[in-house]
Amino acid sequence: MAKAAKTTFRCAECGWTTFKWVGRCGECQAWGTVEEAGAPTSTVIAPARVTAPAQPITDISVEAAHATPTGLDELDRVLGGGVVPGGVMLLAGEPGVGKSTLLLEVAALCAEAGPVLYVTGEESTGQVRLRAERLGALSPKLYLAAETSVAALVSHVDAVAPSLLIVDSVQTMVSPDVSGVPGGVTQVREVAGALIRLAKERGIATVLVGHVTKDGSIAGPRLLEHLVDVVLQFEGDRHSQLRMLRAVKNRYGPTDEIGCFELTDSGIIGLPDPSGLFLTRRNEPVPGTCVTVTLEGRRPLIAEVQALVASSNLPQPRRATSGLDTARVNMVMAVLERRARVRIANADVYASTVGGVRLGEPSVDLALALAVAGSVRDEPLPRGLVAIGEVGLAGDVRAVSAVQRRLAEAQRLGFTRAIVPRHSEEPVEGIETVGVDDVAAALRAAFPARQRAE
What we know:
The protein is an alpha/beta fold. It has helices at residues 73-79, 99-110, 125-135, 150-160, 185-202, 223-227, 326-339, 365-377, 403-412, 439-446, 448-453, and strands at residues 9-11, 17-18, 34-36, 88-93, 116-120, 142-146, 164-168, 205-210, 230-235, 242-250, 258-264, 267-270, 289-296, 299-311, 319-322, 347-353, 385-387, 390-391, 397-398, 417-421, 432-436. Residues 348-454 are annotated as: Lon-protease-like.
C-alpha cells in the first residue's frame, strides 16, 4: 500500500517546518505562528491568460516609476528622492515617537499636487482634524476616513482616487475573507497583501504604519517586510525632541541615509544640520568631556561624550550609561585600566551622550577613553579637539571608515585638532591631525600639559 503523504507545518515568521504542530516555533521562538502547510504536491500548472505580454526591457517606459518629492527634504533624502507611484512603504516605530505626526505633515504637503487619502484605524476623523489644525496641515485635497475594514478602504480609494494612500495602522485593519483577530499573523498578512495588490494595480504610492514589539522589531510576520518596497524605522527617545528616520530596506534608493527631525509643539521640523544638538555650549572646557564625529549612514554627525568618575565605597562600583553601548563602555574602561594604567576599578563611572543621540559605532571608543581619563585626572581636553578611533583589547587604536569626511565636518564646525588612528591622517585644510598607535599615545597627545609636568 502507498504511504499517506505527511502533513507539514510551517512557521509564518521564519519558514521553519516540522511534521508535528507546536505552539512555539523551534527556530525563531515565536508563539502562535506555526500553521499547517499541507503535503507537497507535484501537480502540473496549466498555462493561464497573462495580464500583459512580455516586452524587451529597452521598450519599457520608466516615466511612471520616477520618484515624486514629498516636500519634506529629510524624508526625500532617506527615500532617495521621494515616493514612487505604486511603491509600498512600511513605517515602523515605538508608540508616541511621532509616526502619525510625520505622516500628517507629509499628507498635507503631497495634497498640494493631488488628492491624498489618510485612513486611520486608531483615531476618529475629528481627532485627526484637531491634530492637523495644531500642525497647520489642513488641505482641501486631504481626505480622512476612519475605517478598520479593507473592503471599506477599497471603496474610499474608488471614490477619492488618491495619488498617496496612508494607512494608520496595518495592525488595526481586518479582512473579511480570513479569520483571526486584528493584528494577528493571518490578518496582517492578508491585509498587507490586499493593500500591496491595490497599490500595484492602480499605481498608488502607499504608506503602511506598523507597530513594534518590546525588543524594537517590527510586529507581525517577517513576510511583511519582504513584500513591501521600503521599510523605514522612526527612532527617538520620548524625553528628547530629536527623531531619526532610517531606511532598513529600500528598492528605490540608498539604505545608508538618515533623516533628522525635531519634534515640537507645532509639528515636525527637518534638521539639515543637526550636529549642534549634540554639543554642549560652554565658555570653558570641562573635565570628562570629549567630542567625536560619528557616521549615521553616510552622514557625519558631531557628538559629545561625557564621563564622570567618582570614588565609591560599594563592593561593586556602579557602571551607568546613557546613549552608549554598556558592553562597549565596560570594555573601554578595562582597556584603560590594563593598558594605560588609569585607575578606575574602585570608582563609579557614569557615561552618556548629549542631546539624546545613541552612539553605537566603534569609532566612539577613543573619545570615550579620553573622556573617562580626563575625568579621572580632573583635567579638561584642549579646546577645539576631536577624537576618532576604535579601541582594541590590546590597547591599539584601529582605523575607521571615512576619516576625511568626518574631519571635514569637524573643520566646518570650527574644530582645529583631531586625534585619529595612525595612517589615517588624511590632510584636511584647517584642521591638524595627530596619528596614534595605542590608547597610551592618545592620552599623551590629548593631555600635553600633564606630560610636560611629569
